[in-house]
Design a protein that fits this description.
Length: about 180
């Protein structure tokens, strides 16, 4: 009986904390050594739908909002972990990274020269061949919108419509309560 009560207590405690925000550096972003070519091979091996790079900068209030209000949510973390490998890139950073084609450069060069990122945050999705497929600049309005963005990319809906249209169709299809 004690074991049952202990198990029940653990379950209830786990459910109570399941919706609490989690550190994005632990629960959302994947660990990386900065070799995106190798990360792309890992994404293929893990049967992911692609790679997401989030370009950010220190002190950016919109980046912090994205981290606090969206990337810290357990549902967001679970969805993105299941479908993508996700890595942060500091657009002012000096760390060397290897791009999807094997070229080595500093993060800031990779962000600005290769990806023309100037505003943060910028979410850039890449397919499993390392081609950019969807870009979203700014912080999404909610965790639900960010999950919709992930679905849009994971289901390759970008091939036949833009994200605004996809989002509108999903809202129209949602049953009213």
């Amino acid at each position: 009986m004690r074991a049952f009560l202990f198990s029940l207590l653990c379950l209830v405690t786990g459910l109570a904390t399941a919706a609490e925000p989690l550190d994005p550096d632990i629960g959302f972003f994947n660990a990386t050594l900065g070799d995106f070519q190798a990360e792309l091979a890992d994404a293929r091996a893990q049967h992911k739908q692609g790679v997401l790079l989030i370009f950010e900068r220190e002190g950016c209030p919109y980046c912090q909002r994205l981290r606090d209000a969206v990337l810290s949510r357990p549902a967001v973390q679970a969805y993105y972990r299941a479908h993508f490998l996700v890595f942060p890139v500091d657009i002012d950073g000096d760390i060397e990274v290897t791009d999807f084609h094997g070229r080595t450069r500093r993060e800031r060069q990779f962000a600005q020269d290769d990806n023309t990122v100037s505003a943060t945050p910028t979410c850039q999705f890449y397919d499993l061949n390392g081609r950019p497929v969807v870009r979203y600049t700014g912080a999404p309005s909610s965790a639900d919108e960010f999950i919709l963005l992930g679905e849009f990319v994971a289901q390759a809906r970008y091939r036949d419509m833009n994200f605004s249209r996809y989002k509108q169709q999903r809202l129209e299809a949602k049953p009213t309560q």
